Amino acid sequence: MKLRLALTLSTALVASPLAAQEVLNIYNWSDYIAEDTIEKFEAETGIEVNYDVYDSNEVLEAKMLAGNSGYDLVVPTSDFFQRQNAAGVYQPLDKSKLPNLVNMDADLMKAAAAYDPDNAHSVIYMWGTTAIGYNVAKVTEALGEDAPVDSWALIFEPENMQKLADCGVSFLDAPTEMLPPAIKYLGGDPETTDPAEFEKAADLLLSVRPYVRYFHSSQYINDLANGDICVAVGFSGDVFIAQARAEEADNGVEIAYTIPEEGALSWYDLLAIPADAPNPDAAHKFINFVMDPQITADITNYVWYANANEASMPLVDEEIKSDPGIFPTPSAKENLWSAVPYDSRLDRTITRLWTTVKTGQ
Amino acid sequence: MSRRWIVIAIPMLWLGIFFLLPFIEVARISLVDPAIARPPYTPLFEDGAFMGDLENYAFLLSDSLYINSYLSSIRIAAVSTVLALLVGYPMAYAIARAPEPRRTILLFLVILPFWTSFLLRVYAWIGLLKGNGVINNVLLWMGVIDEPLVMLQTDFAVYVGIVYTYLPFMILPLYATLVKLDESLMEASADLGASRASTFLRITLPLSLPGVVAGCMLVFIPAIGEYVIPALLGGPDTLMIGRVLWDEYFRNRDWPVASAVAIAMLLLIVLPILWMQKMQERA
């Protein structure tokens, strides 16, 4: 048995220089890259890419904390990144291998440095907001012409939710996305770490909970597009994907994305290389490749998420560049808040509150 | 002697590697504290000193969530098992009584769904049950209902999913006992003036009890720990221990408490199994 294994290993070792096929294992969010990005990278570098996807930071985090995930490049969201980085999950970037860093927007990279001092371990992939996507016709039908679509009141007032329940409302299954807007709506600071504020927010969510169809972090994309639900709290780009799918299907569904006037969560998804990545060299090549203005513009034009690549902006479609839901106006930008990492005690409190919200238990 | 030893050793080795070792590992993690590290928990031995305690288990008792989700899992699994038995028994009976060429085809049809991934089949139910899904559209078209029925994201959908998925595990052991039934016993019962109903209740059913118990165990046990079906078909208030485990592990990244939940669940599931095994021995 042992002998057989040794033989297989040695043949593999002998064979690999002949095959000479370098492999890069990427783990990214679902629906989060242009259709031809991987193809172009493979053609340019000759590196073979294995591309896997996830739909929640929690799944990525469990793999990162367990270690030996086999991935060379992952895309955690800023607050999750910060905690994982503290656990020593990521390796510092070799910036000499990343000449395209000059293309990046200095202000946004500075903002992201709040999570990663000196941007030592990460580069912004895309950034966006978490707010409300809705079916224009159905919401107007339920709440009239002056439906409060520019306010969190749309989903936090039971009387509105009651009228929307029939056409379907979905919430993200993520307490860190759902509770801070509720805190803000109640007049508090969405970046608070006071458990009492979270309890009040959970009470507010419980009051509208009977009218929520489901809690899920990706299913709403299809359901919004098909008209199965009419309001979803969702990630900006995902709502735009739903919008595009509805347009493609030509099913008469019109989807809009709104950042309420109370503000919304803004987040950065960061390209980072795990400390135990098998092929960090190829990962650096990919990061540099993505920072090419044309490649980043292609991705933004496809996924409708804002990028942080200043040089790509002339190549981004006018329709996307001028959409305040994607690139918020300066005044809307002032109301955006960011995710603060919580200590494990607050994490547990929040998860427990979230279970209460979801199950009534 | 040595040959018998090998026959026992293989399953023992299998259990040792794939059950006992992971179990010990999980039990070890359940005794320590979470930490921001990789892996995200503290070591069990530090400088030769034992650092573990039962705090995580005490925590499970301090919050009613855990006991409620365990009870709710048992309830959902039990209801699903009864439904699967009610659906599966007539099917197994009909297959066992069918003439030979047809019987093979029918049995084959029971096993056929296994050729498609379990996950895909559960996803197919989403398409059937959802608001503008197949069932609602047919009913609307026929004029039976005016408004789409809300079936997805309810307990109903969870029962449908579990019964559908585990039905073959109910049918196969039932079929195995029913097909061996001696027909002359039923003829004798009829000759002695028993109606078909009382023949069934007094002859067929008691003789098929081992199959009933085996089928129920094969459905009930995996259904308790089911995660995928309630996650995809269930509503937010479908509380099952599998989901609680997911939350502890992924959301709280509290591997020690998650491990304690897993160990407690394993021990608590062993009790119903032992009870059922006893039933089976008696039957």
What features would you describe in this structure?
- The complex is a heterodimer of chains A (361) and B (283).
- Chain A is an alpha/beta fold and 361 residues long.
- Chain A has 2 domains: 165 residues, Periplasmic binding protein-like II (D-Maltodextrin-Binding Protein, domain 2, 3-Layer(aba) Sandwich); 159 residues, 3-Layer(aba) Sandwich (D-Maltodextrin-Binding Protein, domain 2), CATH 3.40.190.10.
- In chain A, 46% of the residues lie in helices and 15% in strands.
- In chain A, strand 1, helix 2 and strand 2 form a beta-alpha-beta unit.
- The N and C termini of chain A lie far apart (53 Å).
- With 283 residues, chain B is an all-alpha fold.
- The mean pLDDT of chain B is 89.
- Chain B starts with a helix and ends with a helix.
- In chain B, helix 1 crosses helix 12, helix 9 runs antiparallel to helix 12 and helix 11 runs antiparallel to helix 12.
- Chain B has one domain: Orthogonal Bundle (MetI-like fold), CATH 1.10.3720.
